[in-house]
Specification:
The protein is an all-alpha fold and 131 residues long. It is built from three helices and no strands. Helix 1 packs antiparallel against helix 2 and helix 1 packs parallel to helix 3.
């Protein structure tokens, strides 16, 4: 009995690419969320350190913004969230793959915020060691 073509499983050789692409690393949405999460941690840590009375905002652009509660919520919380949502929607409907520049910019932002948050941890150690 001979098997016809419909019952024989077609196998791909090692030189052929699969029909799907296995994604390594974090997705675009995960990186975008992590960047926003680091932004929120920066905001909370900055507010806590300023409230201690021993630290001040080092960024001259953010100094006037941190004076009022609603302006801080708008600039550090709502506006970045709106940008993250817009970026996620555009990425979703653009039907494109992640590009090198996109990943590079996201990783630069994540590394920059991670360094800022490490600086906050260092400042918390200074604050609590002086009590």
């Amino acid at each position: 009995m001979y098997a016809n073509e419909s019952t024989v499983k077609k196998t791909k050789t090692n030189t052929e690419k699969p029909d799907y692409e296995v994604k390594k690393g974090f997705s675009f949405y995960q990186k975008l969320f992590f960047l926003y999460f680091l932004n929120l941690i920066d905001w909370v840590c900055t507010e806590s350190l300023i409230a201690s009375g021993k630290f001040h905002e080092a960024n001259p652009i953010m100094q006037p913004v941190l004076g009022g509660f609603w302006s801080t919520v708008l600039i550090k919380g709502a506006l970045p969230l709106a940008l993250v949502i817009v970026c996620a929607i555009i990425y979703r409907y653009a039907d494109t793959k992640e590009g090198f520049i996109t990943n590079l910019l996201l990783y630069i932002g994540i590394i920059a915020y991670a360094l800022v948050n490490l600086w906050h941890i260092f400042n918390f150690v200074l604050l609590f060691s002086s009590i």
